[in-house]
Amino acid sequence: MTAIKEIMQVGVGVPDREGFARFSNDILGFPTTNSPAGNITYMRVDDYRHRVAARTAREPLLNYIGFDVGGRDALGEWKTKLAAKDIEYRAGSKEECVERQVADFIEFKDPDGHPLALAYGFEIDKEPVRYARELNVTGLGHVLLTVRDTQRSHDFYTDVLGFRLSDWVCIDDHIRLCFLRCNARHHSIAFAPCMPGKLPRLQHIMVEVNSLDDVMRTYHFMRTHKAPIGMGPGRHPNCQTVHVYVQTPGGFAVEFGWGHRRLDDARHQPIVYPSGTPVDVWGGDVQSSEFELG
To answer: 283 — alpha (psi -120 to 50), left (phi > 0) or beta?
Structure first.
């Protein structure tokens, strides 16, 4: 059966694209380039030509999340599968494929309107990535989306897209987080309920780094440069990731994480962490007013 292999790209809209690029280069440490037309800023994180593509928008928004399905035949199977589920999708144009630096893709929306793209042929850069500070990255790990109903999101992503449940984490009686995986990583996508009065959005992306030193160097660099640290350093109870979160001018945070658990489908049983479970087993809490979980 065809399956989603991993998360590959995130497309966002940001009010100040130049400011976002400066923050990426100077604070996050990730080099940026522009599309030939100059209307897209690409953030490079690892060997792939980009992991985040930013366009100018009136307010922060999620343009798409790109997943790898492995090839042309697999993409064709996904078209059949989505049609059988009565889910409308659109095919990416040649121009869009060039912009996203993929061979081909289709796009549709989840129940909260988050755009999802299934693609293949993600382009790799021949030149090594040159970070603006001392940093070693292994890849893009996951995204966390805020949604109106975490159970509904769980049902859609597991029933339609084939994700597997890793666990639920109950922060309190009202905030229940859902963590799903599509490969051995503990999760490639997670859901948190929207805060009252807020719309569904991209809350953060996680970049997996090579060592604990990378997390701590990031933390001290952010402190020195007075960047808005959202949380951390800390360790999450379920995925065991040691993390530090940094809020970006794009309206979402970037998590630098290390030690993210890998799960064996044959052995793992989903866990429900009870109400009162902390998001950080070391006792840390939100540090920036700009950082909101939901």
So the answer is: left
